[in-house]
Write a structure and sequence with these properties.
Largest sheet: 6 strands, mixed
Strand content: 5-15%
CATH topology of the largest domain: Dna Topoisomerase Vi A Subunit, Chain: A, domain 2
CATH class of the largest domain: Alpha Beta
Helix content: 25-40%
Number of domains: 2
Radius of gyration: 22 Å
Length: 386
Amino acid sequence: MNHEQRTPFHAIEYACTADIVPPQELNIQVVIRIQSLVILFLQSITAERPSIMGLSMICRSKENSHGTRSFFGEDEPLFLSHLTYSRPFSNKKFTKAFVRVWMVLRISYKLLEEGKHATQRELFYRLLSEAPNYFRCQKQVNDAIQDVVAVVKCSRYSLGILASSRGSVTGRLLIQEPDGAVLDCTNTGSAGQVITGDLNCIQNWRFQSDARYILVVEKDAIFQRLQEDKFFYSVPCIIITAKGYPDLASRIFLHQLRCTFPMFPIVALVDWNPAGLAILCTYKFGSVRMGLETSTYVCDVKWLGLRSRDIQLVSKESFIPLTAKDRQLATSLLSSKMLQNKKAYQEELTHMLEFGGRIEIEALYAHGYSFLGKYIAQKIVERDYI
């Protein structure tokens, strides 16, 4: 890796982020960036000594990630610097990944020319039919999209690609769409209001709310229980779930809520295990893997539960032994840059490893289905979150 090397589209700031190109400029800026790459590639293969140009891209690794605390002591998101590396075609390890990037660039260029968008899933099926030897699973498409973002340095939405969304919202929130239609999130049914994957649509939504809190829930089943119990009437809140690790659309939606209602505390309810904390940290700090796109959309999410002090509420029969994967994730989190200044989080992880078990939110149902709402309400009222 070369600390001095820069992509053709680097910014001046130390923190490197993917540009979000306004819709009215998409067919100019992004198309020019793709055309510039094609020209550089053609020049390399038609030179006096022809060669296949390597793809210079922002390095998405732990070594290139940074996390700090602000002057006021607040947690700052993980971000990537401008450190780049070149992915060579000649290296057999990268040959297929090299080709995948160009194939996604080709489709993206076509989408922008036609003024259309496609979801990541739609891209997968198109690429599967066109190049089955290069694309055999959704992950290969997702990885190629992130590589394209790292090369061209603009967001996937700016490339004509819609983020797949698993998120839902319910509670005391009115969403006004650009056409004037209003969605009342108190009347959504147990599944809640689906959060669209159209990032431009999310950013054009207008919100109204008389809530006082935003509750982020790890699991869809817990989300549905709270919606069915109309928890948001007893505790005025907006409830969001991404059904596990948060997708980009859900993170942007939460960020939009934070910008609209900056005084609303955001608290998270996750399982007491390393994966639960990792999910919370993704909302709070972002992720290295998507560091170019998500550092802008982090929110100051507090850890409501489950935590070690809640062990006493759960029967021993509900304890689940930590797996080798759990322990590996806990060790990784303990050594991560984002938690170096989070002593309380480190203590929770250490307790998990010493305890040797994990606890799921559903274990609280041993006290009856209504206990979950009482547990959350008490925690919120007492400000028992970290």
